[in-house]
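Lab notebook page, bench 4
Experiment: in silico fold of construct C2
Operator: M.H.
Input chain length: 156 residues
Purpose: comparison with the prior construct
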Amino acid sequence: KEKKTMNKHIQEEIEIMMKERGIAEDEHDDDYYEQMLLANPSNSFVWTHYISHRLSKKGYKDAKDLCERAVKVIDMTKLQEKLNLWIAYMNLESKFGKESEFQNIVKRALKINNQKEVYLAVIDIYLKRKSYKIIEGIYVILSRKYKFDIEIWKKY
């Protein structure tokens, strides 16, 4: 809870800084986000906004390149921030990339992050796509791996 409160506080500070600059979010340029990242290199909120900006201004390929940069730069001790970036990357691939690329990103995310959290995020992504058979398969994996985890059984 403390980490979530801190993340929320940081997000609020960033939003205040954005408002103080008097620029609508769509009007930011790459230099603005690069400056924000210099001050907060492990802040997934800034990264995800930058990725969204790149996607809308320059397209999928540039957004994907930025995701790669983000997951390489993020401080590995900032577990939630790292997970947030990987989830953003998986969402990008799911929506705009090929299924094989999405699966590769998921495999990489599973190696680096809390596997249960990654699987739950993947379930959410597949729910948006209404891929219920795939979701069922993931729940089978989770129920075997986390037999006594009530959270998994509740969601299943």
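Observations: Residues 2-20 form the longest helix (19 residues). The chain has nine helices and no strands.
Next step: discuss at group meeting.
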